[in-house]
Amino acid sequence: MHITSILISVALLLALSTKTAISFSPGVANRAIHILEEASSQNIPVDASLRRYAKYQERSYVKSEEYKSISDILRNIAISQYRIDWQLREAGVECSPENRVAFLKKGDPLECRGMDLQTTLECPDWAWAGLKEAFPDEEDLSKELRALMQPAPLDLRVNTLKCEERIDALREIINAGYDATSTPWSPIGIRLEERTALGRIPGLLDGIVEPQDEGSQLVASLLEAQPGETVADYCAGSGGKTLQIAASMKNKGRLFSMDVSEDRLERGKPRCKKAGVSNVQRQVVQEDMTRKDKWLKRRKFTFDRVFVDAPCSGVGSWRRKPDARRTWGTFDNGFDDGTDRLANLLPLQQQILQRASRLVKVGGRLVYVTCSLLPQENEKQIIQFLESDVGAEWKVESPPSDFAIPFEVDGQFLRLTPAQHNTDGFFAAVLTKHG
Predict the structure, then answer these.
(1) How far is residue 232 CA from its own chain's centroid?
(2) From residue 289, how far is each of 52, 219, 233, 338, 344 by CA, in Å?
(3) How many whole angstroms separate alpha carbon 430 and alpha carbon 435?
(4) pLDDT at position 2, please?
(5) Which of 343, 372, 429, 432 could form a disulfide with 377 if both were Cys (CB 3.0 to 4.6 A apart)?
(6) Beta strands in 170-302 (DSSP E)
(7) Tell me, what DSSP letter sits at residue 398?
(8) Around Cβ 240, how many Cβ atoms within 10 Å?
(9) What pLDDT shows up at residue 41?
(10) Can you say whether residue 292 is alpha, beta or left, with left for phi > 0 and alpha for psi between -120 and 50 degrees?
(11) Mean pLDDT, consecutive 10-residue segments, the chain of 435 residues?
């Protein structure tokens, strides 16, 4: 990721956790309106519009109070737009960026009598039914969705290739003046309660620590990759979990980082170098599921372990991407709405799961993961897989004996949520091939 994008992402996340009053000077308000209008007209996430805006400024707004105020406005609207729009419609006012900023500036309560629960909880239509199914108790549903409106802490993963004991990295961070603690669940995690500029954190630029949500650390640990094994990180992207898997393998064995995007895989190269990872091989795999992938076919039944971080709706990451509630369904690939995109995604997830499973040898392990809380992307995908011809040789395994969090649904699946665990929302299933 380009350094400007990193700084902007940090600034936006800082805005979520700020406790100071928002500045609404005319210049700040007008710039925020301009960014919101561009995001709306071009159907892109607000942070992408903000990056464009900052790129063309003569001075760096990343370090200015004005920039922080713009970020405050954008983030506060992102986490409350459904409620703001409901009130604007009730008042007979157009739901425009200008009127949203004006409402926020006015400071009226976001919630009021007569507002329906879905609006109150800032949930889009495409995710509402699935979330109600996942949390049938209304009180639990409210807790989970309100937790997804809160700012996420900054979690770090200790790179055990460079630092064997978490306490050593934690001590350096605390000595530098940060309010940091060990993560409650992950044995290799460190948590900073307040977000800060990443480059200032001791050990980060040296690859000793890496930004990674505690939930992400936990699901990756379920693979339990061992030194000397042949392992695949399927749908690896730029390789955040690849780094953790490589550390688990102690750089011994072969770890294949796979993705349909060569660009994403290339972005993983400098991350591996910084982390001291040397056992990773990158492989672009076929994106079109109707076509055979010759490379994968030649390697059927040769892998000890495969990690499938499936593309998903990202509901579990709404704390970090609050406007994804509205933009996920339409800003990419030309879908009409979130319902349309989700309907197209579900068969793809099943195809990826089945294709990846063919890599695993008898006795091997596959871990299926999403950062979603929707059952149709999670346990229902596993049930469908097990009922398929390909899945007949597989069974769901219990979690490792030393795993910190109990699995749900008769002990079969892991579900992490911000309300229960203060992590991003994740699902994981551990499968073993029996032949």
Answers:
(1) 20
(2) 34, 26, 18, 22, 13
(3) 16
(4) 40
(5) 372
(6) 180-182, 189-192, 209-211, 230-234, 254-259, 280-284
(7) P
(8) 20
(9) 84
(10) beta
(11) 39 42 80 90 82 65 69 92 97 96 94 97 97 98 97 96 97 96 98 87 97 98 98 95 98 97 95 97 92 94 98 96 87 75 96 97 98 98 97 93 87 95 98 92
Give me the half-sphere count of Cα atoms (radius 13 Å) on the Cβ side of residue 103: 26
Amino acid at 167: I
Tokens of 40: 């709306």
What angle is formed at CA 232 by the lines to CA 380 and CA 269, rounded to 5 degrees? 120
The predicted pLDDT at position 331 comes to 60
pLDDT value for 332 = 60
Q: What is the DSSP string of 127-192?
A: HHHHHHHH--SHHHHHHHHHHTTSPPPEEEEE-TTT-S-HHHHHHHHHHTT--EEE-SS-TTEEEE
Q: Minimal CA–CA distance to 403: which of 186, 248, 241, 213?
A: 186
The amino acid present at 89, given as its one-letter code, is R
Residue pair 362/394 in contact (Cβ under 8 Å)? The answer is: no
φ, ψ at 286 (rounded to 5°): -65, 125
Residue 157 amino acid letter:
R
| pLDDT score, position 15 | 43
- Contacts of residue 228, defined as CB under 8 A and 6 or more positions apart, other chains included, come to 249, 252, 253
Nearest to 432 by CA among 353, 349, 361, 371: 361
Q: Residue 17 phi/psi, 5° resolution? A: -100, 0
Single-letter residue type at 403: F
Catalytic residues: 371
Reading the block at residue 38, the tokens are 């561009």
* CB 323 within 8 Å of CB 84: no
pTM over 0.85: yes
What local confidence, expressed as pLDDT, does residue 367 receive? 98
